[in-house]
Design goal:
28% of the residues lie in helices and 30% in strands. The protein is of the alpha/beta class and 385 residues long. The protein starts with a strand and ends with a strand. It has 10 helices and 20 strands. The strands form 4 sheets. Strands 16-15-14-17-18-20-19 form a 7-stranded mixed β-sheet, with helices on both faces. Strands 2-6-5-4-1-3 form a 6-stranded mixed β-sheet. A 5-stranded mixed β-sheet has the order 7-8-9-10-11.
Length: 385
């Protein structure tokens, strides 16, 4: 088997439990491996650090799958998938979460009898047919769709692609999330068709909206808005810039008989927040769930200014007792940075806030502390006092 030899001192991250080897950490590559092949990882003293899959086209030259001396064959993937499935419950959930399930580069989501996968790395892409066999063996789905249309595939030297891999499906289906119905398009909607990572937060925040006047910004398909309505909110205004998403959200409101107290506005949430602030509008609950403001470290400062702006305007619209549920989905914005941005906003708004609860991604998106990249969704539920 070919071997990657690390430079002195470059094994610390692996020893701490991470799974990535960067190209600049490699001293030597023995043998004649092809990209996608299995390689053994050794430190500069020759001690084994496990096995992974190679891609010399990527800055992450090896992604480690195991610390043990075991082949990365079909039986290995069978065991890993079985362990991932055993951790989850329900028929609408994330089944496999890449590094967090020790299957770097593989995402698999279950939407009833349809499974959606993402092959984000070359090693996983080359093993896609094997993975399909195992998914069919374990789950007997009606269809398996691919959403490998993530820009990160370009970093692996791969084109973006999507479509049906097994069975007949056009991507259109209806799912049930904690009792709320959502019509989704698994081939065209963001991520793999639905924000499964927010499923628990939809429920937790929605439960606090009974009898309240709610503003839901960046609503997309109406997740927080519909859970607020289900909980008995007095009224819900939901803002979304995408016209197709607004149309889908309105359809979802109809599915849940919520058209009476939920209104959707197709507009830029930044503009609406500015207008409502100027008009001195007041709400009992404001929800901010924007798309990521940065995908790189270089743009963190600009992103923090954006988070401060929307949180400042939201807090100014909340009276004492009002609740702010605010989120960031950027890995590069850590919990402390995000809290600082929100506290800066509170200070400028002359509001004192109480931390009710820290929010994060749903349990089916597990976090491995040794791999910080597995924790990307940070949220705060704050009360104005």
């Amino acid at each position: 088997m070919s071997t990657i030899i690390l430079k002195p001192g470059k094994d610390r991250r692996l020893r701490a439990g991470h799974s990535w080897v960067y190209v600049g950490e490699v001293a030597d590559l023995t043998g004649d491996p092809k990209d996608g092949d299995e390689v053994e990882i050794r430190d500069h003293r020759g001690r084994s650090q496990g096995r992974g899959l190679l891609n010399t086209q990527s800055q992450i030259i090896v992604r480690r799958f195991t610390t043990q001396d075991e082949p990365l064959d079909e039986n290995f993937f069978r065991r890993r998938l079985q362990a991932a499935f055993a951790y989850r419950q329900g028929d609408t959930c994330r089944l496999v979460f890449s590094e967090a399930d020790q299957l770097p580069g593989l995402i698999a989501d279950r939407f009833g009898d349809v499974v959606v996968i993402q092959a984000l790395t070359l090693g996983i892409d080359q093993r896609k047919q094997m993975i399909l066999r195992l998914l069919r063996e374990f789950l007997q789905p009606r269809a398996i769709l691919e959403r490998s249309d993530a820009p990160s595939r370009r970093l692996e030297g791969l084109p973006e692609t999507k479509g049906a891999l097994y069975g007949e499906a056009n991507g259109l289906t209806t799912i049930n999330v904690h009792g709320v119905q959502f019509a989704v398009n698994l081939l065209d909607d963001q991520k793999t068709g639905f924000f499964l990572d927010q499923a628990e937060n939809y429920r937790l925040v929605g439960e606090r909206c009974a009898g309240k006047k709610v503003l839901d910004c960046f609503t997309y398909h109406g997740g927080f808005a519909l859970f607020a309505a289900q909980a008995g909110a007095a009224s819900v205004e939901a803002i979304e810039i995408s016209a197709p998403a607004v149309a889908r959200a309105q359809r979802n409101a109809e599915l849940n008989n919520a058209t009476g107290n939920v209104t959707f506005q197709c507009a830029n949430a930044f503009d609406v927040l500015k207008q409502y602030d100027a008009a001195k509008r007041q709400f009992d609950v404001v929800i901010l769930d924007p798309p990521t403001f940065t995908r790189t470290k270089q743009n963190v400062e600009d992103a923090l200014r954006g988070y401060k702006e929307i949180n400042l305007r939201a807090l100014k619209m909340l009276p004492p007792g009002g609740l702010l549920a605010t989120f960031t989905c950027s890995h590069h914005i850590g919990p402390d940075l995000f809290m600082d941005a929100v506290l800066d906003a509170a200070a400028d708004a002359r509001k004192t806030v109480r931390l009710v609860q820290r929010l994060t991604q749903a349990p089916d998106h597990p976090i491995l502390p040794a791999i910080p990249e597995t924790e990307y969704l940070k949220g705060l539920l704050l009360e104005v006092i």
